Automatic annotation (TrEMBL):
One of its GO terms (molecular function) is kinase activity. It is a multi-pass membrane protein. Residues 198-250 form the HAMP domain. Keywords: ATP-binding, Cell membrane, Kinase, Membrane, Nucleotide-binding, Phosphoprotein, Transferase, Transmembrane, Transmembrane helix, Two-component regulatory system. It holds the Pfam family HAMP. Its EC number is 2.7.13.3. The chain crosses the membrane at residues 20-43, 174-197. InterPro entries: BphY/WalK/GraS-like, HAMP_dom, HATPase_C_sf, HATPase_dom, His_kinase_dom, HisK_dim/P_dom, HisK_dim/P_sf, Sig_transdc_His_kin-like_C. It catalyses: ATP + protein L-histidine = ADP + protein N-phospho-L-histidine. Gene3D superfamilies: 1.10.287.130, 6.10.340.10, Histidine kinase-like ATPase, C-terminal domain (3.30.565.10). Residues 258-471 form the Histidine kinase domain. This is histidine kinase.
Length: 489
């Protein structure tokens, strides 16, 4: 079980908890302020309305039933005081200057009342309210003042003063209760947010721990757990990455083993025949055979090294292409002538299926020849004896499609998905580096083309290369005659 301190330790978990907590806290504080303001307004308005209702109900009868001309001022004021007084409130009768002439409490004020309700009532001729503290006692009070005007023009003010201390106490109790409710809600929010943060952080920590082990070279570990949404995708991606690294490492190991064998075989032949020839005593025919083997194995070594160099250049984006107009039909004719001897050894027939028109593309002639030589060479290597390989050349909506179709051993669906991967070989006993199709793929892409493969085990394979068609016209002809048409990529 985690310690409380570790539940919100520094990190993304704490950030989640803090942000979630702060948002809820601010929302609750806003609700609290609005609630307390509404409650305070309700209580104060209730008192004010009660006094105002009393004033509305009694002032008219006071003005009708009393007349200052028939009696002395003090008698008139005592009569008004008796008619207007209200339980639980002190009634003061004031003159227009705020001097207290008479009060229901019997206390005499030593100075005029100067609160804001006096001038407001005089100015409006109606009722005004003031909330504050009594000057003598410091007690919180509410004062409601209204004007009393007789026919003679004499203006008096009736001022009702009531204590709101109990109301304020009630408001304080409501405030404390609401704050306690907020504290409980915030505690629940804290617990929930910690749980929410842990539900996010725990998988992240698990993924971090697994990725740390992978960084140390342990690619057998996997992210365990059925995580949802982005975390699930992250875990699946990390597991997929580990699987790809394991597969790449296996391919790399196979490549190293294969290339070591490929290099050792010609070197052994070269070394053996060199020592044999160096010892002397052989007739010219044997010497010629030995020199031929040395030359053949040397060419084979050069091909392997060049393939590795090409792959290295492509990986580092250092491959330079000399671009110009190229007729694919003529290029394929040259390729057929180049591999004719190899095809004859397996009694494989090569056939070019194209009309008599030129198929112009914009590319590097040598690299394009490398692309199609590799494809045709593979077709011959994996074809049966006395079979036919057809090279189709067609135009398709601004593209030139070159398809090399054989009736060889074919490739199963699983290996077809990986056959263009670097270092991968369907038949490890067939020799080579496993880089041929990977290099071909990248060269095609450098020519802004596409390479597709379809195959069925035991039926044959078709490799298609799509290249942008260079339409005939003035611009196309300039590429053939103007040196500005040559560029390096």
């Amino acid at each position: 079980m985690e310690r409380p301190g570790s539940m919100i330790k520094k990190g993304i978990g704490r950030q989640i908890v803090m942000h979630y907590f702060i948002v809820i806290f601010l929302a609750l504080m806003l609700v609290e302020v609005v609630f307390l303001f509404a409650i305070r307004t309700y209580y104060y308005d209730t008192i004010n309305n009660m006094i105002s209702s009393h004033i509305d109900a009694t002032v008219r009868s006071v003005l009708v039933s009393t007349n200052i001309n028939d009696q002395s001022e003090m008698e008139y004021l005592n009569q008004v005081l008796g008619l207007l007084k209200l339980p639980e409130a002190e009634l003061q009768i004031l003159d227009g200057k705020g001097t207290v002439l008479i009060s229901s409490s019997g206390f005499e004020a030593d100075k005029p009342v100067q609160t804001s309700d006096i001038p407001q009532a005089l100015a409006s001729g109606g009722t005004a309210k003031w909330i504050g503290r009594q000057a003598t006692t410091g007690e919180p009070v509410m004062a409601v003042t209204t004007t009393l005007q007789q026919n003679g023009g004499q203006v008096y003010l009736a001022r009702f003063v009531t204590s709101i201390e109990k109301v304020n106490q009630r408001l304080t109790e409501i405030t404390l209760v609401s704050m306690a409710v907020i504290a409980i809600v915030l505690f629940i929010v804290l617990i929930v947010s910690i749980g929410l943060a842990n539900s996010i952080v725990r998988p992240i920590n698990n993924i971090i721990a697994v990725s740390a082990q992978m960084a140390k070279g342990r690619f057998d570990v996997r992210v365990e757990g059925d995580y949802r949404y982005e975390l699930g995708e992250m875990g699946s991606t990390l597991n997929y990455m580990a699987e790809e690294i394991v597969r790449s490492n296996q391919i790399k190991d196979d490549f190293i083993s294969s290339i070591s064998h490929e290099l050792r075989t010609p070197l052994t032949s070269i070394k053996g025949w060199s020592e044999t020839l160096d010892s002397g005593g052989y007739d010219p025919d044997e010497t010629r055979i030995g020199m031929g083997i040395i030359a053949k194995e040397t060419d084979r070594l050069i091909g392997l090294v060049e393939e590795l160099l090409d792959f290295s250049k492509l990986q580092q984006n250092e491959m330079k292409l000399t671009m110009a107009r190229v007729d694919l039909r003529e290029l394929l004719k040259e390729i057929v002538l180049n591999v004719w001897a190899k095809a004859e050894l397996k009694k494989v027939q090569l056939r070019l299926d194209a009309d008599g028109d030129a198929y112009w593309v914009y590319g590097d002639a040598n690299r394009l020849k490398q692309i199609f030589l590799n494809i045709v060479d593979n077709a011959i290597k994996f074809s049966h004896e006395s079979s036919v390989i057809v090279l189709h050349l067609v135009r398709e909506d601004g593209w030139v499609r070159t398809s090399v179709q054989d009736n060889g051993i074919g490739i199963d669906e699983e290996n077809l998905k990986r056959v263009k991967d670097r270092f991968f070989q369907v038949n490890t006993q067939g020799g080579g580096t496993g880089l041929g199709l990977a290099i071909t793929q990248q060269l095609v892409e450098l020519h802004e083309g596409k390479l597709d493969m379809s195959s069925e085990l035991g039926v044959g394979t078709t490799v298609s290369v799509m290249l942008p068609l260079l339409e005939e016209g003035p611009a196309a002809k300039e590429l053939d005659t103007d040196t500005a048409g040559i560029e390096e990529v």
